[in-house]
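In response to the reviewer comment on reproducibility (Comment 2.3), we provide here a single inverse folding case reported in full, input and output, so that an independent group could reproduce the run without further information from us. The structure tokens appear first.
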């Protein structure tokens, strides 16, 4: 009976190290923003930046700039975005060095993620509607895991 218990415990520990995920979230009057941080076997982790528009105004164009970490920024444009299914993905990023990839590949704690991402990632969103062009900066804060 003990022989079966040891492999089961080892399997649970192995699954637990890959079962982590974290997120940063932020909200304004117009936007809900998220960066999901999830494990990735090949690159150690994947950082997925998403937004959702919170008003009924039709957005015709989005320009975004995202400060992800001290050393990583993303920027781009989305023409005629559709928010019918909620958040849209703006970007996907991975740790940019082998050392950082190994860091995440070995599993990370909430405190390690906070250190890696620094104070506050942020999105700056410029969008166009029939009413004009608008810009907001949305600071993101670490969402404590449940």
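Designed residues, in position order:
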């Amino acid at each position: 009976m003990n022989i079966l218990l040891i492999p089961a415990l080892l399997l649970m520990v192995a699954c637990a190290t890959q079962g982590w995920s974290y997120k940063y979230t932020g909200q304004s009057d117009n936007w809900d923003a998220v960066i999901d941080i999830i494990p990735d076997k090949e690159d150690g982790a994947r950082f997925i930046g998403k937004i959702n528009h919170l008003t009924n105004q039709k957005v015709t164009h989005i320009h975004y700039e995202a400060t992800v970490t001290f050393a990583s920024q993303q920027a781009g444009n989305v023409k005629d975005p559709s928010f019918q299914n909620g958040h849209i993905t703006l970007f996907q990023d991975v740790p940019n060095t082998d050392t950082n990839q190994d860091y995440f590949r070995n599993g990370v704690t909430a405190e390690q993620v906070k250190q890696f991402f620094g104070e506050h990632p942020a999105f700056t969103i410029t969008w166009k509607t029939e009413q004009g062009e608008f810009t907001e900066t949305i600071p993101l804060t670490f969402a404590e895991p449940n």
